[in-house]
Each structure stands twice: as C-alpha cells, then as structure tokens.
Design goal:
- With 453 residues, this protein is an alpha/beta fold.
- It folds into 4 domains: 126 residues, 3-Layer(aba) Sandwich (Rossmann fold); 166 residues, Rossmann fold (3-Layer(aba) Sandwich), CATH 3.40.50; 69 residues, Helicase, Ruva Protein, domain 3, CATH 1.10.8; 46 residues, Arc Repressor Mutant, subunit A.
- The chain contains 18 helices and 16 strands.
- A 5-stranded parallel sheet has the order 2-1-3-4-5, sandwiched between helices. Strands 7-10-13-6-14 form a 5-stranded parallel sheet. It has a two-stranded antiparallel sheet with strand order 8-9.
- Helix 1 links the parallel strand 1 and strand 2.
- The chain binds adenosine-5'-triphosphate (ATP).
- Adenosine-5'-triphosphate binds next to helix 7 and helix 15.
C-alpha cells in the first residue's frame, strides 16, 4: 500500500509546548501535514475528526500517558502508526510500548534526522508492512507452508520448536541448504510472545567482513570511508523482536568476538561510537555447516557456539523424509498454478515417479523450483518428462553409477588376485610385481590403496 498519493498527516502529542512546536516546524519543513495536541485526551478527540497516519507521542504525560494513548489508538484505529518519544530514563517503558504495538521509539535529545528517517520509512510503505506485524494479521502466513509431517524426526523438530518458541532461549537450527531453516525460524517467531514485533533476518554469508559488522551493529556517520550517514544495525532493528542470523557458521572470527559481547550484555555499540545501546532481542541462528568441525578447524569459537545453541534442532534432509513428498508435491503444484495463473490437467506418470523418487540434494528449495519451472513451461495444461531437465541429468547419472560399479568390480578382482600372488610368492614384492607385470612401486601403491595386509 502506498500512502504518498495523499498528504501524510502526523499528530504530535506532548505536554511540553516548546518541544511539540519544534517538532511541528521540522515536520512542516519536510513536507508533512503536522498538528499538535497537548494531552492524550486532546489527541483522541482530534483522531476522531481527522484521519492521521502517524502519532508521535511523548511517553510521560499527566492524565493519560503515551502507553495509555497507544492502547486507545490501537483499539479503535489500528492503521495509525505510533512512535513513542521518550527521555533516556524511560527507555524500558518505551520498549514495553513497542511490544504493545508502537512502531518504534525516539529518544529526546537524539538527532531529529533519525526520527525523520523513521517517519519516511513509514510513509514509504514499511509502515504498512509493520502494521501487519503489529495487527492481528501475520506477515508469516502458515498457509504458505507445509508444516505437517509424517516423518518422526521432523515431527519431533516441530514439537520442540513449538515448545521452545514460548521461551526466550537462543535457538540454533541445523540442516542442509534448502531444508527450511528460515521457515522454521519464522515459525518459532510467530509462535513466540514476540510475534507482534519484527522478525529481522540477516544472511551472514552475504556480506564482506566489515560490512557484516556495520549491518549487525550499525555505525555512526563518518565511522569509516563510505559511512555517509548514521545507521542503525540489525540488532537495534530487532529490538523487542527476533534476530535471525542465517549462515551463522560463516561469521568471521573477529566479528564472532563482538557478537558474543552483544549476546551476553544485550547492549550494542554502533561502529564509531562509545555509547552502549540496550537491545532486547531473541536470537535464532542457523547454519548448514558442521559447527563441531568448524570449531576443531579453528574457524568458529566454542564460546559463541554454546551461547547461540541453548536449544539445537536439526531439520532432516528431504531425501530422508520421502513420506512427506506427496503432500509437498501437491502443495507446490497448487501454489505454482495459482501464482502463475495456469491450470495443469495432466502430469506424465514418469514425472510423478521421478518426483517421488528423486533425492533432492537442494532439498525443499529444489523441489519447489522443479515444480514451479515445470508449471511455467507447461503447454496445453500438460507436464511432460521433457519439461524436467533433472530427469535427463539422472539418465546421464545412470552411466556414472555404472562407471562406479565397474571401478568397484576392478578393485575387488585386483585385490583378490594380488592377495593370491603375494601368498604364492611368500610376500616377496619383487617377485610378485614381476608375475603381475607391474613395477614394485605400482604394486606398493595398490597394496596401500586397497589396504591389502
Ligand atoms: N515446510 C515448507 N513448506 C513450504 N515451503 C517450504 C518449506 N520449507 C521450506 N520451504 C521453501 O523452500 C525454500 C527454502 O527454504 P529456506 O530458505 O527456509 O531453507 P534454508 O534451509 O534456510 O536454506 P539455506 O540454508 O540455503 O538458507 C523457500 O523457498 C521456502 O519457502
């Protein structure tokens, strides 16, 4: 939903006349239609008459405070976003207010440029996105996923995820690429007490080392070349909600040290600043790497591992839960037809057989892609074997499998024959090599390779 087709109306509520007037002037200069109210009561009566988009309200006010006002607004006008304005001493209350549906909070005395950015964000539509999060309707639509399973191991994972969601503990999700770690992280967030707040994913693999730190911790203007503006990091963005560190195994060691500090102290320091900003987040991490191996190789810190993995769960690869394939295949066919406006009336028996027996090294992502592509490429409502290049590749694979078998056969025959000759020659290597028609060195190599004793 774009809101910039009509004037964006902001209501400033503060019992301090000077402050609300200054804010009104700044907002007017930025092109907003700003009005003021001196109390929560006045604000509510103005809200009844004028359709405001955003309310900026002071937290501490006589009569009705900012949180009370927020509750009243969310009761009757859920679409109106609210930013809480607060002093340093009352940040905790502002955080509580965010849990009750405030969009964010702004500390009096901070640079108003930050506040303007936040307001712009709301105007540009992110507010609408957030509104979904803070309202009854969830952005993560369970109907978009198959979270029922016939597989014992995955059933257990879902059960643990559901129970762990209610707590605040750090969760580590393991599993091969494409098994649905991201989906499970969102599932946990949506079942937690933080569901109304943000779910902030960070793909740690996607950033160069320095950039990852700035992404996570934020930076001050001029903190490094290219830091043209002050920027909040993802820890701050996840305040009150859930931070999801995807591919956590790819975080460089130096960043891991800093990460550990934030996880332990729940305070973040933007790059180029000494100020410690309190952050309240729930941490979910995921990786497709073998972290035990990474720790042994000196690429992952053991202390970080223990911090992030109070509860660990591993999603099984799709090839080991083939009993779920029929439901998943059906789901992705339905979804793709709807999304691409196509109707599939006939699917080749060979295609079905292939989809049910293929091993999916790319897991659910691969299954989803194969089906989506076949639906997009389908003609006259039919899906043919030729629409699935994976089937052709597999035919080629048949040849490779045969080659492996031949190699095994050769190994078997050679091992037995070498053993016989060695016995016949009383384990004399020179004599055995002569009979076999190979050099001493070649025979040594074969004895080692075939582990002949
Ligand atoms: N249970 C599910 N139901 C429907 N779709 C799913 C399910 N699990 C995963 N998917 C889909 O499969 C794709 C891969 O899922 P996801 O990104 O969660 O995997 P991942 O394990 O996090 O992968 P990576 O390790 O590459 O980050 C996504 O498009 C996702 O929507």
């Amino acid at each position: 939903m774009k809101r910039d087709s009509r004037p964006f109306r902001v209501l400033i509520v503060d019992d301090e006349r000077e402050y609300r007037e200054v804010l009104r002037l700044i907002l007017a200069e930025e092109g907003y239609l700003a009005e003021t109210a001196a109390s929560g009561f006045e604000a509510l009566s103005k809200l009844k008459m004028v359709p405001f988009d955003l309310v900026l309200t002071d937290l501490m006010m006589a009569g009705m405070d900012g949180v009370e006002l927020l509750k009243n607004i969310k009761k009757s006008q859920r679409r109106v976003d609210v930013i809480i304005i607060t002093g340093y001493g009352t940040i905790e209350n502002a955080v509580e207010a965010m849990k009750k549906g405030a969009y964010s909070y702004f500390i009096k005395g901070n640079d108003p440029v930050d506040l303007m950015k936040e307001i712009n964000e709301i105007r540009n539509g992110k507010g609408a996105e957030h509104e979904q999060k803070s309202g009854q309707k969830s952005e993560f639509d369970l109907a978009q996923f198959v979270l029922e399973t016939k597989n014992k191991q995955f059933k257990r994972v879902l059960d643990i995820a559901g129970r762990a969601a209610e707590s605040n503990v750090n969760i580590l999700i393991l599993g091969e690429t494409g098994v649905g770690k991201d989906v499970l992280a969102q599932f946990i967030h949506e079942h937690s007490g933080r569901a109304r707040m943000r779910f902030v994913p960070v793909n740690c693999q996607a950033y160069a080392e320095g950039l990852l730190e700035s992404e996570l911790f934020g930076h001050e203007k001029g903190a490094f070349t290219g830091a043209l503006e002050r920027r909040k990091g993802r820890f701050e963005a996840a305040h009150g909600g859930t931070l999801f560190l995807d591919e956590v195994g790819d975080i460089p060691l130096t960043t891991q040290v800093k990460l550990l500090r934030v996880i332990e102290n729940k305070k973040v320091e933007r790059i180029g600043s000494n100020e410690l900003i309190p952050v309240d987040f729930r941490l979910i991490s995921a990786t497709s790497k073998d972290l035990a191996h990474e720790i042994l190789a000196g690429r992952f810190r053991e202390d970080v591992f223990y911090r992030i993995s109070t509860i660990t769960m591993e999603i099984p690869p799709l090839r080991s839960r083939k009993e779920d394939l029929p439901a998943l295949i059906d789901f992705f066919f339905q979804k793709s037809q709807k999304e691409h406006g196509k109707e599939i009336r006939k699917i080749d028996a060979g295609v079905k057989e292939f989809l049910l027996s293929y091993d999916y090294p790319g897991n659910i992502r691969e299954l989803k892609n194969i089906i989506e592509r076949s639906v997009v490429l389908s003609q006259r409502g039919e899906i043919l074997c030729t629409d699935l290049p994976e089937m052709e590749e597999r035919k080629g694979d048949g040849g490779r499998n045969q080659a492996i078998k031949l190699k095994e056969m050769r190994r078997h025959v050679e091992t037995n024959y070498i053993k016989q000759v060695l016995g016949f020659c009383n384990h004399n290597i020179t004599e055995s090599a002569r009979i076999l028609g190979i050099s001493r060195r070649q025979l040594f190599n074969k004895i080692t390779e075939y582990k002949i004793r």
